[in-house]
Amino acid sequence: MPAVPCPSCTSEGLPSEWDGSLIARYSHSGPRYTSYPTAPDFSAAFGPAQYLDALTRSNGQARPLSLYVHVPFCRKICFYCGCNKIATKDTRLAAPYLARLDAEMRLVTQHLDTARPVEQLHWGGGTPTFLTLRQMSELIDQLHARFGLSDTPGRDYAIEIDPREADVLTLRHLQTLGFNRLSLGVQDLDPQVQRSVNRIQPRALTEILVDEASRLGFTSLNMDLIVGLPHQTRDSFAATLSQIIELAPARLSIFNYAHLPERFKPQRRIDAADLPDGQEKIAILTTTMQMLSDAGYVHIGLDHFARPDDSLAIAQREGTLHRNFQGYTTHGDCDLIGLGVSAISQVDDCYAQNPAGLADYEAAIDSGRLATQRGIRLTFGDQVRRHVIHRLMCDLALDLDSVSDAFGIDAPDYFAASLARLEQPERDGLVTRQGNRLVVSHLGRLLVRHLAMAFDARLPDSDAHFSRIL
């Protein structure tokens, strides 16, 4: 096992320690900016009719398509989970849900030009591995019949995998269905941490799938880890990370655990006294950055890391990286069609979201109408700010002159108040301003959500909707 560095050690741009005042200044809640405007700004005044109008307008743009399918079921609840899920062992629930997904596809494609290529496909949950292999085949057949899936090498077809519910036969089947990228949920390999969150997952389960994915030639493999779980320490998480580095995934998503038991009932099973405090969490994060940097990973931003030869890192270097509801992506120029419970679509200049409740989704589809429950159409100002926020988060830099040219505005004047809000972060070393160009520092990559908030004209008075930045 590689040596675990001391948390006080430094790498380029990393502080030896963060004092309490700096943590207090930036350890607040804020959006993740997978969209702008963010979901709290979505309105019930935007419904099926407005979504259908957006679908029709999008045909004139003829952008390629990205499809997201939400499978809400999982067999066993993880106490940390804040996803939209239904914990059940009743696999009979899947069949009627798949039938309604197909009905939703028919409703969408009545208004959508399906000659447009499907460059990206993502199945999330819950866990899509709740489905049987036969049901996975049926769902792919439905998607192909309605939209026409791609077999080109440049496609990005990904699925989230629970290693406790998948084996080598699962991966072989997924490859035959056209998936070329996998995302494995790991969270932590420490047995005590696993017991405390009700997710017992020995390393061997993950390692077998990693080896098989490599043998089968999957284009990219991502692993999800979580920082801030009960009983985690800088040393225990460094031990987990050392094992993960040995497995050499192309990408790592290292999420910050948001303890919101008032919103997510399973989290009430977690004793807040067992969670690492702010200083320990910062030590975990700085150790993580140090270890991944030493192992050759590129910090894409926020909680995402990738090998230099992975498509995410390449896209960032080339200035073509984007963000959508799956996080960082290389296919941000697509119209995104979300299918299923709670799924969000990004079409033309609109966002449209389905209901989070299964009963509400079923009722809408059974009545023969789209399930859109809320959404928003972007104003010109929204579009400018979305561009700026996403470029800052994807490029880790922002060229205000290019923004001026793209939107026909004087960007430094347009964003004068935003730039003033960045003066303190600049003094703290999170960002530098070089004329009309902003550059995020290595430290600022962890806090880029805070930097993006300076450009957000819609921040609510309360941050109760959002997770903590650190």
UniProtKB/TrEMBL annotation:
Keywords: 4Fe-4S, Cytoplasm, Iron, Iron-sulfur, Metal-binding, Oxidoreductase, Porphyrin biosynthesis, S-adenosyl-L-methionine. It comes from the Bacteria. Pathway: Porphyrin-containing compound metabolism; protoporphyrin-IX biosynthesis; protoporphyrinogen-IX from coproporphyrinogen-III (AdoMet route): step 1/1. PROSITE patterns: RADICAL_SAM. One of its GO terms (cellular component) is cytoplasm. S-adenosyl-L-methionine 1 binds at residues 68, 125, 160, 344. CDD domains: Radical_SAM. One of its GO terms (molecular function) is 4 iron, 4 sulfur cluster binding. Binds 1 [4Fe-4S] cluster. The cluster is coordinated with 3 cysteines and an exchangeable S-adenosyl-L-methionine. Its cofactor is [4Fe-4S] cluster. One of its GO terms (biological process) is protoporphyrinogen IX biosynthetic process. It is found in: Cytoplasm. Residues 59-295 form the Radical SAM core domain. [4Fe-4S] cluster binds at residues 74, 78, 81. It is an enzyme of class 1 (oxidoreductase). S-adenosyl-L-methionine 2 binds at residues 80-82, 126-127, 187, 199, 224, 258. It catalyses: coproporphyrinogen III + 2 S-adenosyl-L-methionine = protoporphyrinogen IX + 2 5'-deoxyadenosine + 2 L-methionine + 2 CO2. Its EC number is 1.3.98.3. Pfam families: HemN_C, Radical_SAM. Belongs to the anaerobic coproporphyrinogen-III oxidase family. Monomer. NCBIfam families: hemN. This is Coproporphyrinogen-III oxidase.
